[in-house]
Amino acid sequence: MKQIYNPYLPLDEYVPDGEPHLFDGRVYIYGSHDLAGGEAYCLGDYVTWSAPENDLTDWRYEGVIYRKDQDPSNKEMHREIWAPDVAKGTDGKYYLFYCLAFYPEIGVAVSDSPAGPFEFYGHIHYPENIKNGKTLSEHLPFDPAVLVDDDGKVFLYYGFSPAVPLKKEGEDGDIEGAEKLEFSEGAMVAELESDMLTLKEEPHMMIPGGLKEGGTSFEGHGFFEASSMRKVGEKYYFVYSSKLSHELCYAVSDYPDREFTFGGTLISNGDIGYEGNQEPHNMMGNNHGGMVKANGQWYIFYHRQTHGTESSRQGCAEKITIQEDGSIKQVEMTSCGLNKGGLSDKGTYPAAIACNLMGKDSIGKITYGASLKDTQPYIFEENNDLHYIANIGDGVVVGYKYFAVEKLSKVVLCLRGDAEGEIKVSADLAGKSELGSSRFKLQGKEWNTVEIPVKAETGKTGLFFRFAIDGTVEFKEFTLS
Hints:
This protein is mainly beta.
């Protein structure tokens, strides 16, 4: 049986900030490009992957679609290219919108195919009768998103609105040069000409940021970054990362550029807010993504953090449901993601598809530039073919949701390290529905197996491994039988 799990791309691929779009019967994912163990965001050139809308298990690599040195402002490649978006113009061509790392302009590239490659086209600018045609630089052009409406009108969205001052140079979380820029007070919007390059008006604030949210429906969830726009029926849904950073929220309006009201949270990469939860169920970091409808089902794409840092991010996706009243309930992170149902209760799975990964103590959110490798368990790539969860010590919980259990009697874990103790398996995060346990002792650098007999009820279930051990281990894979 063909299956797919989160992350939906190969484990050696790191495409965060994923914007999914349906073009000609295929879902294309456009995002930034991190590297395994990268010490900064977006160190790679843009790549894209695509899958048939009726088979989201079958992702195909389309290759490098745009290089960072193709922008004339970046010939020396001093800056990374950050979160992009792609839209199909009224002329039938495909336009890639992007920004360079904290550089005040938005670049546009063009292609005849949604799979690229794209060629540099220009920078967003004013017409001659507005600001003498200068390049857009106000309010920090950042994380651009574009909507081509049904009537052919084109709208550009962008913005970066920190709710707290950025840290001073030299501190953890500092990003060079950021403190010198003019940030936006919220999400910005402006209409573009059909050439996808020329502003028809000056941008205005559409949704308030964290410093302007008081007294509005956005209070507590003011705009931070990660603009994304979709039209659903006659309504406009704006997806964004709030001032909390780990969550993607949405706002709704009857118009593409005004009168938005807060809708709610779609997903948090720590499951904060899901069914009232306030304890991080995962190593939290920034978040960015968008919605897409494929084969009749809506999905939200987002990303997770790996390598104990905020700069090796991988794309994930979950099913969402738009209710009759237009609302969308928050969904939880899962391992089954795009799969049609729960994962099979037979076969071998990479440990790195864990959707819940917690140390003994709550970790909160990663600070950019910092590393939690010494204190927390984390997903790690040793080489392209070897991925595992590292630094598993006493009190660590590793969780997977969900499996379609028919007759599960044994779980075999593949581990290495120097440790001894007990592993308990439960069907739930709280550990109330225990399925089995096993004691073990490991020593050395070779991979070994630990068998755990289990008794699991038929139906949908999670699998959570709780480690009560002395020492630390690494966890490569597990086999269900």
